[in-house]
Amino acid sequence: xxxxxxxxxxxxxxxxxxxxxxxxxxxxxxxxxxxxxxxxxxxxxxxxxxxxxxxxxxxxxxxxxxxxxxxxxxxxxxxxxxxxxxxxxxxxxxxxxxxxxxxxxxxxxxxxxxxxxxxxxxxxxxxxxxxxxxxxxxxxxxxxxxxxxxxxxxxxxxxxxxxxxxxxxxxxxxxxxxxxxxxxxxxxxxxxxxxxx
Length: 197
Description:
Elements: H1 2-29, H2 33-46, H3 50-53, E1 56-59, E2 62-65, H4 85-91, E3 96-97, E4 103-106, E5 109-112, H5 129-138, H6 154-157, H7 162-174, H8 188-196
Antiparallel strand pairs: 1-2, 3-4, 4-5
């Protein structure tokens, strides 16, 4: 009798878990587009994506994100920083950045924060959700291109669930598009060659 009761209780428990899982899945699937975007904004803000992808204005308290250039990446109007080879070699530092923190120099060369606004040419407007997710999972631009360079923490972001990555992408697609062409990365060999000429 006790064994039969234990089996019945286990079966009821498994049914309850299955029902809960189905309800959770259906709740996720029934999330409205507005809720999806709100979830994405929350994740993007908590992840502090703007620290690199939004240009800054200087205040008495230091650099502050420029809300007019939200997620525009490294501005084409900003000069490309000179590679600080001597500074990096002699200071023990691994990287250096510009005042806006949208350009970074290190052993990998110079990298520039991508325009994440939905501009069709210079931003994520033409990206697919799948390409964005693959990029965050495998560290390749658009999922199968050049390597995504430091300091972009794609390894950490790639641990998000697929639903969270979809939400982040939905948020980026919902913001104001900004026409800003970000420079291509400058590889170390190009920098070394330029410094010896």
